[in-house]
Design goal:
Length: 85
């Protein structure tokens, strides 16, 4: 149907949480912020998350979004296989 509408259909691998390029930028940074930390309770976790997001400049999110096409293409070029960075 999309081709009948003259839309470009882009190839993409099936969704996999460990390959989601949209998650990679944010969650890798969050993981790094948690490295070596022990959060004693739910409140400590909430406080850490609030600070993490509040401290990120707008450019952090913009850069992550702008890298998506490149990350997506890497997954396509790698036939959907896991990519180690």
């Amino acid at each position: 149907k999309l081709m009948e509408l003259d839309w470009e259909v882009l190839m993409h691998p099936s969704y996999s949480p460990d390959l989601a390029a949209s998650d990679y930028h944010l969650f890798r940074s969050l993981q790094n912020s948690l490295d070596g930390k022990t959060l004693a309770d739910k409140r400590a976790a909430e406080n850490h998350l609030k600070k993490f997001f509040a401290d990120k400049p707008q450019k952090f999110y913009t850069d992550g979004i702008m890298k998506l096409p490149e990350k997506w293409q890497k997954v396509i070029d790698n036939n959907g296989q896991y990519i180690l960075d």
